[in-house]
Design goal:
Blueprint: H1 3-13, H2 17-27, H3 40-55, H4 74-84, H5 89-109, H6 112-124, E1 129-132, E2 148-152, E3 157-161, E4 169-172, E5 181-190, E6 193-203, E7 215-219, E8 232-236, E9 239-242, E10 252-253, E11 259-260, H7 266-275, H8 278-305, E12 307-310, E13 317-319, H9 324-355, H10 367-398, H11 410-417, H12 427-439, H13 447-452, H14 473-481, H15 495-522, H16 527-533, H17 535-560, H18 564-584, H19 586-591, H20 597-614, H21 618-623, H22 629-632, H23 641-651
Parallel strand pairs: 1-5, 2-5
Antiparallel strand pairs: 2-3, 3-9, 4-8, 5-6, 7-8, 10-11, 12-13
Helix pairs in contact: 2-4, 3-5, 4-8, 4-9, 5-6, 5-8, 8-9, 8-10, 9-10, 9-17, 9-18, 9-20, 10-11, 10-12, 10-17, 12-17, 14-15, 15-17, 17-18, 18-20
The protein binds flavin-adenine dinucleotide.
Amino acid sequence: MTDQRQQLQAFLDGRWAWVRDEVRDTLRDPLFAPVFDISIDDHRARVLEQARRIAATRGPRLLFSKDVGGEQEVGAAITAFETQALGDLSLLVKGGVQWGLFGGAIQHLGTTEHHQRYLPDAISLDLLGCFAMTETGHGSDVQSIRTTATYDAETQEIVVHTPDDDARKDYIGNAARDGRLAVVFAQLRTDGGDYGVHAVLVPIRDDDGRPCAGVSIEDCGPKLGLNGVDNGRLAFNQVRVPRTALLDRYGSIAPDGAYTSPIENESRRFFTMLGNLVQGRISVSGAAVSASKVALTIAVKYALARRQFKAPGGNEEVVILDFLQHQRRLMPALASTYALHFAQEELIARAHEVFDGDSVTANADDELARRKLEALAAGIKATTTWHATHTIQTCREACGGAGYIAVNRLPQLKADTDVFTTFEGDNTVLLQLVAKTLLTRYQAEFGELDTLGTMRFVADQVMETVIERTAARNIVQRLIDAVPGRDEDGDLRDRGYQLSLFEWRERHVLDGLARRLRKGITEGGDAFDVFNSAQDHVLTAARAHVDRIVLDAFVAAIDRCDDPELTRLLDLICDLHVLSHLERDRAYFLEHTRLTPARAKAITAAVNTVCGELRPHAELLVDAFGIPDVVLAAPIALGDESARQAAKRDAAPAR
Ligand SMILES: Cc1cc2nc3c(=O)[nH]c(=O)nc-3n(C[C@H](O)[C@H](O)[C@H](O)COP(=O)(O)OP(=O)(O)OC[C@H]3O[C@@H](n4cnc5c(N)ncnc54)[C@H](O)[C@@H]3O)c2cc1C
């Protein structure tokens, strides 16, 4: 490894470098090598075997509290998950369901008795579980799910019931084959009252793997990707579980049926419960960044080896990465992957703060911190997963026909990551959550709406605006302050100028949105209609906010780099990230006269220039992702023949 590669990798690996190394080592085992021509049944069996191997490592324990044998290092746990995404994504998702969702729900929504009783076996994989929230009829709108959990005081049992097919639990990971116990989200009824969505533990299979009485299980069948995960449908016919099966951190039932909760307001209680499950969203976001890194590493390595067309007068064909358009396809995607890496790193650090402490759940009770984390996670997850979908497709095309061949991994990456934009929160819905949180800044101006009780579009609780600066506050302000007053004086590659454009757009879009909503309402519009008719504006506001947050994170990362050569390189990458964004969104800046036509054209020229400047560093930039060859596996990425042979050997199924 060259010094520079080592340094850049160490910088990217960051605070939890040790866990990244541990996971890389684990993935080097041939058991984890990608396989391509395998039946769904064999794939599921293989993924379970791999998951058992992962269970024996430190990774899953990092997520859980010490009193159940965990290590309570949430940042390291999410980083481990993210690194594991360099390998087979079915295994990743299977593990995400088991430890992140099933275990995470017990950890965060349950109390000590649940933790002690279930978590040690969940960690070791002796108890396989499901997280059953989504129903056929309701996915994004979880509050409207229709499964019921009705308390029967006479028997001191909770009766879980699926009223009709629309209320079946759908797409549930681990349900079709392996799960024994499910965390089932249902409308809780007791003592004549309806208390909204709560989670109840329901056994779905006995020790021999047969469905429990009253539980029907269907297999969702083949999917576009992730076929190593056994997704299924669950329905419950008056299934009785003991009163203690209720995960009762946020609401409990006394033996006589009396309901109590530390959070009075039903809607607030619901959002608090969901907010505690945010780690899954952050993990998927990290997985999207890792998958983008894998695809880019394959495409860049191929682009450095592949030659097409002789230049006139030349003897050799041209390396395809020397074509400007090829650079334009891969280098901006690479630059934005760096930007999102740093944004994700900051997101993980925030999650670590919120969920670490004397107990895993201690600081999560700080509602403000949790809500800020939720909004940040929603925005970053939407951005990283869309970025992955776009980048992987670009990489596939950039590898020509070779990119379409399964052994080169890109087809599977495409198929497996596609759903990242949907699960753990549909991206469009998540961006609306971001915008709603931002709009709380304007809540005073919407005061009248509150009295109408129709403020569904502004979050329930007042919180400080998340537009506040993150770690980069001082640095960013200093850079912006140093910019000359007039736009036409700004150097396109001056960081302060770039920041000021991103920041101006964020404020301008949000101010305009707030004015538009207020006008609609003061003119007597129905709150839902007013919000709905501004939905495009809402999404633009959220995107502008996330773009600014991501840039801030990049700027903060560059600021903490103390190696001058590395700093220059990171600066160059950041320039390309910003300039390609400005090029993409130049219509907006032109429409709002923040860019003249001449400057807009200059941005395109600047993108070309920076692509050329970064071209000599392309291999270094992907090597620094630290993806071991056996994990990368794609022959087109592995250069010489011996490496190809090694990859073939390693890619052979272990059994
Ligand atoms: C492979 C896979 C695994 C899964 N695993 C699990 C699991 O283990 N446990 C679990 O509980 N769930 C799981 N899910 C379910 C997943 O979380 C849901 O699919 C997701 O939340 C979206 O819900 P939906 O499919 O009902 O889509 P819908 O909510 O019906 O959305 C459909 C479309 O409508 C749009 N839309 C919805 N509301 C709005 C709005 N207000 N404004 C504008 N557009 C809107 C969305 O953007 C989307 O494009 C899984 C899904 C898949 C595909």
